[in-house]
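quick q for whoever's on today - can somebody do inverse folding on this one?? i tried earlier but teh output was garbage lol. tokens:
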């Protein structure tokens, strides 16, 4: 298991369970942590930072009690610790203006509409995590089991990574 985490922020327990279940195959390499609100996510991010872990992927619902998901993703983009984290807005309710704000201010990597196809969520997560480890990690071999092997092999060939 690596020290690169996936965090899922979602206020509906059933939806959170589905996200975690859909991403379960990644958990052998990327531990998954969950939060039910932006405030809970801030505490989780602080704990992971203090423990010396990285956050490779954040999946965040938009409409939640308290701060909206876009607000949290913008904060993450503006924090040097989570700036490189790949960010996915996962929602069925964001309006066009809020989605544009997320793309522009939070450097949103993807937008996934609810309900989603489980395989599609996995494909997007694998693609985003592959981009993250190629950009952030020196050792790519530990990620071959669950990420995009072709892209990792290409990075190893072109960038001299192991």
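ok took a stab at it. sequence:
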């Amino acid at each position: 298991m690596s020290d690169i985490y996936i965090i899922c922020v979602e206020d509906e327990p059933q939806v959170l369970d589905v996200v975690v279940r859909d991403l379960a195959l990644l958990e052998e390499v990327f531990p998954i942590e969950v939060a039910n609100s932006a405030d809970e996510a801030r505490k989780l991010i602080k704990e992971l930072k203090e423990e010396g872990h990285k956050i490779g992927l954040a999946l965040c619902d938009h409409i939640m009690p308290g701060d909206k998901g876009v607000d949290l993703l913008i904060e993450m983009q503006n924090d040097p610790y989570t700036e490189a984290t790949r960010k996915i807005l996962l929602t069925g309710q964001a309006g066009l203006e809020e989605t544009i704000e997320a793309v522009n201010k939070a450097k949103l990597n993807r937008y996934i509409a609810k309900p989603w196809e489980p395989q599609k969520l996995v494909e997007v997560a694998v693609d985003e995590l592959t981009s993250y480890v190629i950009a952030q990690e020196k050792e790519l071999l530990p990620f071959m089991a669950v990420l995009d092997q072709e892209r990792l092999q290409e990075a190893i060939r072109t960038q001299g990574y192991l």
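fwiw Residues 4-117 form a domain with the Rossmann fold fold (CATH 3.40.50.2300). also The chain is about 45% helix and 15% strand. so keep that in mind when u check it
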